[in-house]
Amino acid sequence: MRGKIIPARPGEHNLKDYVRARKEFDFASVEPEFSWYTTGRVNVVYEAVDRQVEEKGLEQQVALYFESGEKQEEYTFGRLQRETARFAAVLKKYGLQKGDRLGIFMPRSPELYISFLGAARLGVVVVPLFEAFMAEALKDRLGDCGAVAVVTTPELYPRLPLDQLPALKHVFVVGENVPAGTLDWHREISLVTETPPMEWVGREHPLFILYASGADGKARGLVHVHNIMVGLLITARWVHDLRPGDVYWCTADPGWITGIAYGFLAPWLLGIPVVVRGGRFNAEDWCATLAKYRVSVWYSAPTAFRMIMSGGDELLSRYDLSRLRHILSVGEPLTEEVMEWSLAKLGQPIYDTWWMSETGMNMICNYRCMPIKIGSIGLPFPGIEAAVVDDEGRELPPGRIGNLAIRAGWPAQIRAVWNDPARYEEYFRHKPWFISGDAAYRDEDGYFYFQGRLDGVINTSGERVGPAEVESKLEEHPAVARAGVAGKPDKLRGEIVKAFIVLNPGYTWSDELAAELREFVKTGLAAHAAPREFEVKESIPLTRDGRVDRRVLREWVLFRQDF
Ligand code: WT7
Questions:
Q1: Atom 4 (ligand 1): residue with closest C-alpha?
Q2: Which residue lies with its CA nearest to atom 17 of ligand 1?
Q3: What is the pLDDT of residues 312-344, one digit of tens each?
Q4: What is the ipTM of this complex?
Q5: pTM score, two decimals?
Q6: Residue owning the nearest CA to atom 2 of ligand 1
Q7: Cα 430 from Cα 15, distance rounded (Å)
Q8: Is residue 246 within 6 Å of ligand 1 at its C-beta?
Q9: Nearest residue to 496 (alpha-carbon basis) of 524, 535, 523
Q10: From the CA of 258, how far away is ligand 1's center (Å)?
Q11: DSSP per-residue string spanning 149-182
């Protein structure tokens, strides 16, 4: 598999441009593309929405094609501008101000995007919460950032542990029959008579706080700022190859970084319409959506590609996907099998991109203008310096596996971990490097190869799970004395969540108990965090300072798969 090469394809930029850009490119050269470069007035919502209407003449251009079940809606940039301004008015009416935090906890829907951008118009900081989160996960995240308001739906509302969130004052509910004591999002919008002006903020003003799981402790609130737009605009153009006339579908949920950065911010900065498909969908729905909206650029994940593969050739043959001209992947290793399928059935390669919540933008990618080496995540984006370093932060030569590191200081980098400066500093413990937590090596040509996570964070079907959160949830159950959780390699999902547990006296292991524990994590924390496998142990290995020894767990899942 390694060593197979797919030649470069014609695109707007060629390899020479890339090589030159690698040497000369400076992110500062992107800045004149923004209106604030001339006016000095910054707000990403102005750049992504208002400016498309006021300066680019895109008032009537569709920004969002939304489809979920029977529901189908189109939002132009003009309508987005009006509705986000109205939601800003609503927030203002309830006293929200620049810097306050607003949680958004709802399934994909136009109201989600309007709430996000409406809040950002006011300088309010958005806290996106994935719809699978349950009470405990919500309490940790909303409590940590002290959110004063939340937008949710009648279905998800009961999961909010209101009595444990003292800072929370208002709950806006999108849907029919809003619960007593909450505010009806649509009614509030309809009552607005006057909209507030755009709040100008600094480039370093927080835009959103994304909670991401780390190896230890609770999820950390990664703080991203308005300046993220610099990295997003240029990667949207050079990695995603977005151009006028494109229809873009990034299939990630806006509860995760991909669904925020590339789900709407990046394409809208370029005035490109996006497709959002809500609800659950099967292999056929994927193809139908690509065909129906004549999607030309598609950003998805290996898990999704595999789902379509399982639908068979017959499925693909029923849809006209001739508009599709650029496909990208993220989140988990892009396997050769998936690449071969795409080459054979879609007539084009898939471009892998490596990055993470902390980086805010694509970092190491494959580009149309240069050969793809199958199995490689590609080469650093111009202006980004990546390296493989040892545990002391010393650079390693090609071929050696070590920590995948990025030279600190790119435009979309996180600026803080909310309430936790020590955790933020940990990423930068080997200056000048940002330590990603991933293992990688690099070949003689500078291509990087992802080798899994080093720190125990689990990646299951592209969703990030913190073992410590699962462990403490399991330990709340009366049957469990101690738990150790690790990712176990899995063909379909990349990794699955595996839990080693020590039982309390009086409990015996059974399939029923396994099901009960799974349900306990599912309903307490989040469905995707529930262990798919359990193993009972006499003890859990601990480090000298009493924490779960992740290295030993890793060995258990890798080498002792006989259970
Ligand atoms: C982790 C970050 C922003 C990306 C979506 C997930 C894994 C990311 C790749 C890739 C193999 C990848 C890494 C990384 N990952 N891209 N192309 N190939 N693995 O963001 O939830 O912050 O997770 O996803 O392990 O550390 P995230």
A1: 356
A2: 354
A3: 889 999 999 999 999 999 999 999 999 999 999
A4: 0.99
A5: 0.94
A6: 356
A7: 32
A8: no
A9: 535
A10: 10
A11: EEEE-TTTGGGS-GGG-TT--EEEE-SSSPPTTS
